[in-house]
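Help needed: design a sequence for this.
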């Protein structure tokens, strides 16, 4: 087992102390642990984000392996359990909480209370809209970073981050939909997840 001190020294070589402290003290939630959410969680863990809430109700199955952060040994496990295994191999000293539950309009505000940044990473359009509208309505300062449009095999350069409202960012191409029969492939999903994680870090560091 690598020690906390060894990991801290590795961060010392990449980030200054002020950045480290901001990342270590940050609180970020991820709603949905599929292709977007699992890769967002991995990116934030590698970046040293100190406190995370990871929420999902589903289990890992074979259709997830083409774009999500899980492996064959995790098939059948709840995604909340599987993602903890993945992240423990990256940094076991982070403060990570999981919730094995389905997010609804009725419980969303309570689940994400205390987390100033929430990454929306659901699969279905109605779920995405529900979470975004609920948090904008029922919280006063939560910033939502939502994924929208990363299906198919189009150019990854079409994926971008857009500041849509004061407390809402959208990451994706804004048009492609898996329901159009064009499928989901790892490269575009991971690029969109990278945009979401990157925007999280920018907000933490006060760059927006």
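Sure. Designed sequence:
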């Amino acid at each position: 087992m690598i020690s906390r001190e060894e990991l801290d020294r590795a961060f010392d070589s990449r980030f200054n102390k002020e950045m480290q402290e901001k990342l270590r003290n940050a609180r970020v939630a991820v709603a949905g642990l599929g292709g977007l959410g699992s890769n967002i969680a991995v990116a934030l863990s590698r970046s040293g984000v100190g406190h995370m809430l990871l929420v999902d109700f589903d289990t890992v199955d074979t259709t997830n392996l083409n774009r999500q952060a899980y492996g064959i040994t995790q098939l059948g496990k709840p995604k909340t359990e599987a993602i903890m295994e993945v992240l423990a191999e990256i940094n076991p000293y982070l403060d990570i909480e999981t919730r094995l539950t389905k997010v609804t309009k009725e419980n969303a505000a309570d689940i994400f209370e205390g987390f100033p940044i929430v990454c929306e990473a659901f699969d279905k359009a109605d779920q995405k809209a529900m979470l975004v509208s609920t948090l904008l309505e029922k919280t006063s300062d939560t910033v939502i970073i939502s994924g929208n449009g990363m299906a198919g095999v189009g150019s990854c350069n079409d994926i971008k981050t857009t500041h849509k409202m004061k407390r809402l960012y959208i990451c994706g191409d804004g048009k492609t939909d898996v329901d159009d029969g064009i499928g989901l492939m790892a490269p575009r999903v991971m690029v969109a997840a990278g945009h979401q994680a990157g925007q999280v870090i920018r907000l933490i560091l006060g760059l927006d």
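Strands lie at 27-31, 51-56, 95-100, 117-120, 143-147, 160-165, 168-172.
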